[in-house]
UniProtKB/TrEMBL annotation, chains A, B:
Highest rank taxon of the organism: Bacteria
Binding-site residues, Zn(2+): 98, 101, 134, 137
Species per Swiss-Prot/TrEMBL record: Ekhidna lutea
Protein name, as recorded: Fur family transcriptional regulator, ferric uptake regulator
Pfam family, one: FUR
Entry's Gene Ontology molecular function annotations: DNA-binding transcription factor activity; transcription cis-regulatory region binding; zinc ion binding
Essential cofactor(s): Zn(2+)
Signal peptide: none
Cofactor note: Binds 1 zinc ion per subunit.
Amino acid sequence: MSQENLKSILKSHELRITDCRLDVMQFFLNEKGALSQGDLENQFTQYDRVTLYRTLNSFLDSGILHKIPNETGTATYGLCHDTCSPDHHEHNHIHFKCNSCGQIECLDEKVVPKVTVPTGYKIDGVNMIVDGICATCA
Amino acid sequence: MSQENLKSILKSHELRITDCRLDVMQFFLNEKGALSQGDLENQFTQYDRVTLYRTLNSFLDSGILHKIPNETGTATYGLCHDTCSPDHHEHNHIHFKCNSCGQIECLDEKVVPKVTVPTGYKIDGVNMIVDGICATCA
DNA sequence: TTATAAATGCAAGTGAGTTGCATAAACTAT
DNA sequence: ATAGTTTATGCAACTCACTTGCATTTATAA
Ligand SMILES: [Mn+2]
Ligand SMILES: [Mn+2]
Ligand SMILES: [Zn+2]
Ligand SMILES: [Zn+2]
């Protein structure tokens, strides 16, 4: 994606344009899988780990990224759809974690099925993590 | 549950009977929600945190507990069904996380719906976490 | 260009999770 | 019941991701 496109994405989310943010966003757009803080630290040694941490947080808050829960404890992040905003996140797709290569990816085209909860409960969101073997590792 | 019942559960999983394991198992049986290592540390100050940590792990390995992933990073654990064994875990129920009180619970009667993944992918397991407001907090 | 607000880097702290090892306790076999 | 064997426990110490404070630098607006 062009540098100008990247800048307009940041602007539309009311974020200042900085080298770190441009690089991190480009990285997310290039990678098909979800990324962790550690992935960013390995990729961008020129930036302080705290800066990368805060970059992830600002992207989370502004609706550019969403956090993907998993059992290992280290958070991973994936790009949000255009429909996401700081106020309203729409993440109704399935996440897949490969037990061989460890990669987590957003299956954007796979919609999370509707579910019901017991009487008196109210649903805000649903997160579905499927684990198994990805096509590359099969 | 009686002390004898608790002991037989441990024995059937080939675990030695210790005070810590009996207490922790009783705690899980009493609590309706899932518990974290921190919850155990608060409840049982007489046991070292490492002992509680290893108690959770031995219960995990032997199929007494299952780990419930969530976005906060701190792992929580819930009781397995009778059908679970060290070799084969069967956790096809939905987990609910209340955004008000923070409690995570197993909705044992709510079965995770079947899903499909792209061609070439293989499914090992599915984890579904619904978040919202529980009946108590509503 | 200057003023203001925000982002960055560095240092330092938190808290869960983990391991090694000596001691204590649970089980097994006399 | 006792002695021998195996396992669990407590303590110290470590890793690692995550988080905060503060001084400095940079981006943006006036
Ligand atoms: Mn996703
Ligand atoms: Mn459960
Ligand atoms: Zn893979
Ligand atoms: Zn609640």
